[in-house]
C-alpha cells in the first residue's frame, strides 16, 4: 500500500475526473497514449483511494467506425501501473448506437483501491447498498443494470440536432458511513455561433438550463433517499456570446455578409476603426476567428470569467470551487498543438465539477494540509483532444470517530 493510503479521520482521498474523450477515438494512434499517461500521472500524484472517471462521446463523433477502439482503451486503463492497486472496478459504457432512442455515448469508470475496505454501491432496483467485489465492465445491457440510472433527454429539448446523444447517468456510493450520488452529464452544444450571438443570454443557454433542471429534479425526487451529489461532465456551458464579443470588439465596426440565395446572415466581420481596418473577429456558424488567442490563455483566461454566467441560474442548487484553469474547450486536435485553441468556437469552461451544498460540506480542508483540495485540468501542455479533462481531488470526511453517526448520513469530522 502506498504511504499514507489508509482511511483515517481525515477521510479517503477521492479523485473525480470529467473528460469528453471523443477525439481519442478519432485518432487513437496519437492521442490515447498521451491521454492515458497524463491521467495516470494525475492518479499517481494525488494517490486517491477512490477514482471516478466520467466520459462523454465514448467512441467519438464517428462512433460507427470508432467504437471498436473503446474496449482496448478501457483494457489499457485497467491494466496500467497507476491502477494496479485498485482491485475493484465498475465500468459502464453506453456503446449501443443502434438504439438511437437510448444511446448517450456516456462512460462511467469507478476504481476502488485495495486498502479501502468499507465501500458499497447502491442497487436502484432493490433499493439497498451492496458490497463491491472484483472488476466488471458493462456495456450491453445498461438499461437493465440495477446499479445505475440512465436517461437520454427527450428529442424535443434540442430539435436542431437530429440524433442528439445528450443525457445523464447516476450511480450511488457509500463510503464508511457517508453516501453520495455521482452523476455523469452531457448537455447540448451551441449549434451556431451566429445564433448564439443574437441575444443575451443565448437560446442555447436556455436549452441547457432546461436539461440541467430536469436532471436536478430527477436526482432529488422522492423515489430514493436524497443524498449529497457531485455532478460532473460536459455541461457545454459557454460564455455569454453577445457580451463577450461586444467586449472583445468594443472599438470595432461590424460588417454583415448575407447569403445571395437566402439573404440569411453568413458571417459577421468586426474591423478596427483605424489601423488599416484590420479584422479583429470573423464569426460564422462554425467559425470564431479572433485576432488574439492569448486573451483566453493569459492568467488562465480569468478576464473572461465574468461572462461565464450559465451556472448562476442554479446558485441555490449547485456550487463549484473557484476556477483557476483556462477554458477547457475547444483545443486543437493536432497532437503537436497542446495549448492552441481551434478557431471554431469561443473558448469556454464546458467541462465542470459541480456539487450540492451538502456535498461541498464534505470537502472542508484540514488545517494542516496545504493541497488537500485541487480543482484543475489534466495535460495543460499536451494535446488531450478538443477537451482538456478537468479533475477535483479532495479528502472525504467520512464521519470516522463518530460511532453514533447514522448509517449513510454524511457527517464532517471536526
TrEMBL record:
What would you give as a GO molecular function for this chain, any one?
Answer: inositol-polyphosphate 5-phosphatase activity
What SUPFAM superfamilies is this protein classified in? Answer: DNase I-like
Keywords (A to Z) from UniProt? Signal
Identify the CDD domains for this entry: INPP5A
Q: Per its UniProt entry, what is the enzyme's top EC class, as one word?
A: hydrolase
Superkingdom, taxonomy of origin = Eukaryota
Kindly state a single biological-process term from the GO annotations of this entry.
phosphatidylinositol dephosphorylation
Q: Which residues form the signal peptide?
A: 1-19
Query: What Enzyme Commission number(s) does the record list for this chain?
Result: 3.1.3.56
In this chain the Inositol polyphosphate-related phosphatase domain maps to: 10-402
Q: Which family does it belong to?
A: Belongs to the inositol 1,4,5-trisphosphate 5-phosphatase type I family.
Q: What is this protein called?
A: inositol-polyphosphate 5-phosphatase
Amino acid at each position: 500500500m502506498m504511504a499514507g493510503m489508509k482511511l483515517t479521520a481525515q477521510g479517503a482521498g477521492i479523485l473525480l475526473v470529467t473528460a469528453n474523450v471523443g477525439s481519442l477515438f478519432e485518432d487513437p494512434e496519437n492521442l490515447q497514449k498521451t491521454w492515458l499517461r497524463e491521467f495516470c500521472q494525475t492518479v499517481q500524484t494525488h494517490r486517491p483511494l477512490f477514482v471516478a472517471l466520467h466520459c462523454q462521446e465514448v467512441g467519438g463523433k464517428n462512433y460507427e467506425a470508432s467504437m471498436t477502439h473503446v474496449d482496448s482503451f478501457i483494457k489499457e486503463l485497467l491494466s496500467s501501473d497507476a491502477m494496479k492497486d485498485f482491485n475493484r472496478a465498475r465500468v459502464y459504457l453506453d456503446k449501443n448506437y443502434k438504439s438511437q432512442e437510448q444511446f448517450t455515448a456516456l462512460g462511467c469508470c469507478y476504481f476502488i483501491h485495495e486498502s479501502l475496505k468499507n465501500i458499497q454501491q447502491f442497487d436502484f432496483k432493490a433499493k439497498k447498498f451492496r458490497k463491491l467485489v472484483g472488476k466488471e465492465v458493462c456495456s450491453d445491457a445498461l438499461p437493465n443494470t440495477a446499479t445505475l440510472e440512465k436517461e437520454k433527454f427527450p428529442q424535443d429539448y434540442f430539435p436542431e440536432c437530429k440524433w442528439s446523444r445528450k443525457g445523464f447517468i447516476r450511480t450511488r456510493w457509500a463510503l464508511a458511513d457517508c453516501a453520495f450520488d455521482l452523476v455523469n452529464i452531457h448537455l447540448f452544444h451551441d449549434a451556431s455561433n451566429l445564433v448564439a450571438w443574437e441575444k443575451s443570454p443565448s437560446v442555447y443557454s436556455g436549452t441547457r438550463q432546461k436539461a440541467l433542471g430536469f436532471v436536478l429534479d430527477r436526482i432529488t425526487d422522492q423515489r430514493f433517499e436524497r443524498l449529497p451529489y457531485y455532478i460532473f461532465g460536459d455541461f457545454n456551458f459557454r460564455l455569454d456570446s453577445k457580451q463577450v464579443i461586444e467586449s472583445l470588439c468594443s472599438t470595432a465596426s461590424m460588417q454583415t455578409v448575407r447569403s445571395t440565395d437566402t439573404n440569411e446572415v453568413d458571417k459577421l466581420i468586426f474591423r478596427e476603426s483605424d489601423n488599416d481596418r484590420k479584422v479583429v473577429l470573423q464569426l460564422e456558424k462554425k467559425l470564431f476567428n479572433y485576432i488574439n488567442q492569448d486573451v483566453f490563455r493569459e492568467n488562465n483566461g480569468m478576464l473572461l470569467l465574468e461572462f461565464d454566467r450559465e451556472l448562476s441560474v442554479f446558485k441555490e442548487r449547485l456550487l463549484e470551487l473557484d476556477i483557476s484553469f483556462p477554458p477547457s474547450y475547444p483545443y486543437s486536435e493536432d497532437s503537436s498543438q497542446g495549448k492552441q485553441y481551434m478557431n471554431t468556437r469561443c473558448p469556454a469552461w464546458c467541462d465542470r465539477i459541480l456539487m450540492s451544498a451538502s456535498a461541498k460540506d464534505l470537502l472542508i480542508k484540514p488545517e494542516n494540509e496545504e493541497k488537500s483540495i485541487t480543482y484543475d485540468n489534466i495535460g495543460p501542455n499536451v494535446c488531450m483532444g478538443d477537451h482538456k479533462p478537468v479533475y477535483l481531488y479532495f479528502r472525504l470526511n467520512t464521519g470516522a470517530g463518530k460511532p453514533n453517526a447514522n448509517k449513510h448520513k454524511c457527517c464532517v469530522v471536526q
